[in-house]
Structures are given as C-alpha cells and as structure tokens.
Amino acid sequence: MIKENNKSCAVIGAGISGIGAAIRMRNKGYKVTVYEANAFPGGKLSSETNKGYRFDMGPSVFTMPEYVDELFILSGKNPRDHFNYEQLNPVYRYFFEDGSMLDAYHSNEEFAEKIAQHTTDSKEAILKYLEKAGVVYHLTEEVFLKNSLHKLKSYLTWPTLRGILNFGKIGAFDTMNQANEKAFKDPRLVQVFNRYATYNGSSPYLSPATLNVIAHVEIQKGAYYPVGGMYSITKSLVQLAKDIDVAFRFSTPAEEIVVENKQVKGVRTAQDFTQYDVVISNMDIYNSYKKLMPGVKKPQKTLDQPKSSSGIIFYWGIKKSFPELGLHNILFSSNYEQEFDTIFSKKAIYNDPTIYINITSKHSPDDAPEGCENWFTFINVPNNSGQDWDAYIQQAKAAIIQKVNRLLKTDIEPLIESEMVFDPRVIEKRTSSAFGAIYGNSSNNKYAAFQRHPNFSKEIKGLYFCGGSVHPGPSIPLCLLSAKITTDLVKE
Ligand SMILES: Cc1cc2nc3c(=O)[nH]c(=O)nc-3n(C[C@H](O)[C@H](O)[C@H](O)COP(=O)(O)OP(=O)(O)OC[C@H]3O[C@@H](n4cnc5c(N)ncnc54)[C@H](O)[C@@H]3O)c2cc1C
To answer: Where is the Amine oxidase domain (predicted)?
Structure first.
C-alpha cells in the first residue's frame, strides 16, 4: 500500500531507467507523470515488427535480472506473476577467421573446463582469471555501481571503504588488453575477454582492466533470456507502473525544465506547463542541458567527455534456419586492435568488422515465420561526427555479407527477405542520445567512472538525472541501479 505524500514528480523519458525511477518515486508516495517523446516506451529497449519478423531494437544480453524483480517486490507484487526469464547455457558462440569456434558456458567452472579443451590455455589459468574478476567485482560494486560517487556519505560505509582501500587491486592501472594478454596465451581468449569493453562502447586497448568484471557478471552471475524477448522487460515494467498509478504522456516531448531561483518549478511541453516538486531527467545528460535548460550553467567539462561508440544494425528477416548459430553469435575480426583504432582514432568503420548476430527466434519461434530467423546484425562504429553514413551502411553491408558467407559457408544475400537499418543518426533521433553514442561517455580512460554526471544537480534543487549517460553508466542493470541511486537521493 503506497503512503501518499502529496508531492509530485515528473520523469522525462520512458527509457528503462526512467520507468524504474517512476516506479520507485510512486512507491515513495509521489504522484508521478512520465513524459515520453516517442509514441512508445523503452527508448533503446523497444521492439518493431517488419514483414512477419519481430526484433528487439537495442539490448539483447540480459544480466542481473534481480534489478527488474526488485521493482515488482517493492510494489508488493510477485515478479513471477508478471515477468519471467530463463538462464542461458551456453551463452555465446564465437567464430574466428581460422575456422575455429568456441562456446562460452555459464559458471566459471564449466566455462573454464570447456574452453580449455579447445585452446592452448589451461583450465586452471582460465579459472584463476575468472575468480579474480569476481573478487574485483565484489570490491567495486558498492563504490562504482550501488551508490552515488558524488556524496560523502557513500564513502562512509565499510564495503565502500574496503573498495577504496583495495584500489591497487582492481586493475585500474593496466588496460583490459594488457591484463588479458598477461592472463592468456591463446590470442582467441584475449579477444573473447577484450570484447567486454564493447558492452559500454569502449576500446579494450584504452579502458582500465577493472572492466574485466563484466566477464564475471555474464559468465558467473549469468545471462538470461526474458520470456517473450527483451521487450517484455519494458512491457511488464510499464504495466507495473500503470498498475500503481504512474501516468504516462506519450508523444509528448518535454521542451523545458523550468527553473526559478535555483529551484526546479516544473516541465513545459508544446501544450502546457505543469508544476512539480521533483523533476528527474532520463534524457541523455548532454541534451538535457543543451535542449531543456539552455539558460542553466552547464558542467561543461563533464559534458565534453569523449562519447562511446555507436552501431550500425541490420534487422534482417532471413528465410532459412541456421542450426550452427545460437541466440548470441560473434564473428570476430582478424585484427581487433585495428578495428578499435579505426573506430576511436579514425572515427571510421573497419573493413573487417566484428559482427554480432542475435537471433531471438531461436528461443521465441513466433519472432519469425516457420523455417526462418530474425537476425539482429550489429557492428560497432564511431559515434556521429558527420560521417557519410549512407556510404558507410553500404560498405558495412558488403563487409558483413562477405564475412558471414566466409565463416558460415553460405550465400546470405538472397536469403534476406526483409531489412530495417539503424545507424548513429537514427539512434540519436529515436532516443535523443548525443551524437548517437549508445552508451553515453566512453570508458576509454581510468578516470571515466568519476567523470560521469552525478544523479543530482549540484546547482538546482529538486532536479535529478538517471540513465545510461549518467552514474553508474549504461546497460539495463546499471540503468535500473541508476534509477535506484537517484530516487534514494530524493528526500521522502
Ligand atoms: C543496439 C544496442 C545494443 C545494446 N545492447 C545491450 C545489451 O545487450 N545489454 C544491455 O544491458 N544493454 C545494452 N544496450 C544499452 C542499453 O540499451 C541502454 O544502456 C539502456 O537501455 C539506456 O536506457 P536509458 O534509461 O538511459 O534511456 P534510453 O533508452 O536512452 O531512453 C531515453 C528515453 O527518453 C526519451 N526522451 C528523450 N528526450 C526526451 C524529452 N525531451 N521528452 C520526453 N522524452 C524524451 C527518449 O525518447 C527515450 O525513450 C544496448 C543499446 C543499444 C542501442
């Protein structure tokens, strides 16, 4: 039972973090209204159907489902009555140019056992690496994931202090690639673990080895598939929010966060102005300042931090089934270092890109016609600084087709019976993400975690921020933690 407090809160953006924040604020007793520019919820976590093929448009790897469950429990409901998921095992299938293939299994033990059978590294070496990633995860989660980095009280708890006292052990001084090259002899394993840098749009040749904790999250804590696909996360949480009386205003972009005397006053749209006690912006932080608060002093250094990579995605309806592929498939580039250098230094696309193919019809057969598959085909590309994206799309499509044909020994082009394409311009337009960067700031330096914008405004009372472009960062679980950290900062 929610105890009303007669206060009101606006959430700008129905991204996963905005929805999470709305549910949490409602549970604190606020009357909550969510403004969403699109006609649909979810932002990056949305869904489209094209010629009988359904696609999750953005995220496809689901980890830490407990943060979705937590929102149902907080609202007095049993999550299993509303949202379900299955554990994946194996999680990934990796393909290499030499014709070899590796399957990544769940749990340190099974992963190490099976991978050691096909590589030159021993089970013991792999286990040692994974166990270390687990230790670093536990040392860092309180400091970097679960609390505001910008409030003194966050530093006065034992788990946080322990993390800080062990700073030397968390791998902040090596890059991911340096740590992975020290750990493994087999270059394929180095590549497998380097890939986790792309989970927040960064380069393993620049990001701190601390990010190797992502391997622990995916391999040991586990990866899951939501029943009905990724979009069921958005759908079930929006339904939960509606059930507890959160109001949604779709197709209603906020045009201004109105501020007077350093106090938030409310939200202006093209139609009206409404007063609120609290405003939480889930819009990308760069555009929150630029577009919604042009008159407010900007934290320029924070906003100018280098942004993450973006993606070109082909959503292909494939009129054939490929038993050699699983839900998550990676076709690795033969020169990873050059690929990242091309993306981050040259701001161009690489001619032999690493390709990610996600096929949800493997688990949700209704996502494609019988005997067919829905291919979400993704390559990492730079964010938008005015490149010729139409030319890049043609170049990317040709490179992907060639590589798929080579590695899967097929002729894929005649099998593509439907196509939608996203590039950084589309991502920018659809979600207001600055420069179409998928993950906010990149993590391409060891201080990146400290350079994200805090979850509150230091200048304006009543103004807060949540989502992938602010602390603690991108991905579904971190965005849900961002909603929690943000709403915990709002006084009852
Ligand atoms: C291709 C791709 C693959 C990804 N893969 C994964 C993955 O496998 N696993 C994973 O965990 N994460 C993944 N991510 C990252 C993850 O999707 C994001 O970190 C997360 O969804 C971001 O959520 P958010 O709440 O920050 O907001 P967003 O999803 O960015 O949504 C922001 C919302 O705010 C709305 N909005 C913006 N401005 C206004 C305004 N002025 N008024 C009203 N509404 C406004 C937008 O329309 C949008 O709906 C992926 C992302 C993409 C794009």
So the answer is: 16-486
